[in-house]
UniProtKB/TrEMBL annotation:
Protein name per the record: PH domain-containing protein
Keywords: Membrane, Transmembrane, Transmembrane helix
Transmembrane domains' residue ranges: 20-38, 44-62
Source organism: Schlesneria paludicola
KW Transmembrane helix (keyword) present: yes
Amino acid sequence: MHDAAGPSLPEYSHTQQAPLCLLIYALAVVNFALGYLVEVAPPLMWLFPSMGLMLLILAASFQHLKVEDQGDVLRISFGPLPLFRRTVRYEDMAQVAVGRTLLLDGWGIHYSLGGGWVWNLWGLDCVEVRFRTGGKLRIGTDDAVNLAEFLRSKLTN
């Protein structure tokens, strides 16, 4: 049950869009069209539609990256199809800094060459979070300064 004021709004919420997903959506449509137009042997007739479906799911899974405060945790989620998401407890964070990922780090979710996990959608700007356990996480964002400020405020509380 919520109080009379209703549920509280997050202190921080930012969604970054990925222009690359438009290309992936287009490739999905092309594969569906090829599956309809190209007459091939039965085992291959499912190749183009299957690839189209996989590309459609990929594009819908990585269309945007939302970073949002949820009380005692930071929620990081790709979407709008929410297959990939994680939460990070503020109390587990030791340090926060604005940084940049390497071009070799690329985009998506993966372990970085420089150590730690990368959750990145588009661009090289990120916020690097170091954990009390020694691990680190790089959160790609086009709002790095504001996200870092917000996270620092959570470290002091």
